Fold this sequence. Notes:
Layout: E1 6-9, H1 11-24, E2 28-33, H2 40-48, E3 52-55, H3 58-67, E4 74-76, H4 83-92, E5 96-99, H5 102-111, E6 116-120, E7 128-130, H6 140-152, E8 156-161, E9 166-168, H7 172-188, E10 194-196, H8 213-224, E11 230-233, H9 237-240, E12 244-256, E13 259-264, E14 283-285, E15 295-297, E16 299-301, E17 310-312, E18 318-320, E19 328-332, E20 354-356, H10 361-364
Parallel strand pairs: 1-20, 2-3, 2-11, 3-4, 5-6, 6-8, 8-10, 10-11, 13-16
Antiparallel strand pairs: 1-12, 7-9, 12-13, 12-19, 14-19, 15-18, 16-17
Amino acid sequence: MNASPRLELDLSVVQTSYVTFRDAFPHVEPAYAIKANPHPDVLALLAGLGASADLASVGELDACLLAGVEPRRMTWGNPVKKASDVRAAVAAGVSRFTTDSAADVDLLAREAPGAAVTVRLAVDDDGSATPFAGKFGVPPEEAAALLCRARDVGLRPHGLGFHPGSQQTDPSSWCRGIASARRAVALSGVAVEELNLGGGFPTRHGAGRVPTLWEIAAAIDAELGDWRPHLVAEPGRALVADAGVLVAEVVLVTERAGRRWVYLDVGRYQGLAETEGEMIVYRLRCPGHPDAAPRGPVVLAGPTCDGDDVLYRRADVQLPLDLAPGDVVEFLGAGAYTSSYASVGFNGLPPLPTVITTLPTPERTPD
Ligand SMILES: *Cc1c(COP(=O)(O)O)cnc(C)c1O
């Protein structure tokens, strides 16, 4: 299928990324964060490899059940939930939930008595490309109070957790989360069994080195010292980003106010949501244009009539000077947070289709 735009996804790269994650974190239960790429083949592959799943909605629950994830391997990671969400989870056999408010603890006590509860701590998410800015998590004092409340209302105060923010490039961010968890344990007197390290493990995008999984693992290990709770992590991006190439086409090239604008048939609403604020700058490739071809700076824009549908204005994006309508532009490392973010039909443009394929070797081994 040659529809444009499309996401070409290589399942063997997902498998390699999963094996690599297991190698770097041999003592951690990996719970794939479904929202990064919920394609049924990805879920089935990871389920088959024994991965757990971190889910956030009834839709993701159903997708996991269809893919064959065992309910005991599921954790409901979203601290914002309806009573009907909890009922559906309990009916399916899910018994691990993340929480970060008294109201949600009480909801769980009503709808999921006896369930294992993990309290989410707020961590300083500086260093993340997409910080949460206070949307989730509580300080250690409040986490301690929530653990005690959970115990008192008949839940299991099972764990503490945090999420250092997606595309987190500072390993010490996980250390700060662990330090907060240690403090919450000390304050509450509850010896939690589980520590959830969240997601955030970065993948390579534009310029700039990102820490390896082994560097992050070493930082986490050093911070844990002799504290050995059951460890869970919720990688999303790290398992699927490298497996995807988003293939698009040039629609228009023109000059505006002295800058060269390139309009593609893909934009913010067909899967490139993470270009918002230019937080993720993808590596681009133009097949058919030799690497040595002369290049110049562009403003890169999407095809819709929305003023926000501009991918990069400030980032230094250089494309071949002879780029023309019909030419292909590829976004590398685009397997995460693209197809799942595409709108259902803004301006009549369909959601981004996924094509399962085998990518040629150079695309699979970003250096
Ligand atoms: C989105 C999310 C993740 C995955 O984050 P990545 O940066 O893709 O690894 C993990 N945990 C929670 C709670 C999330 O919301």
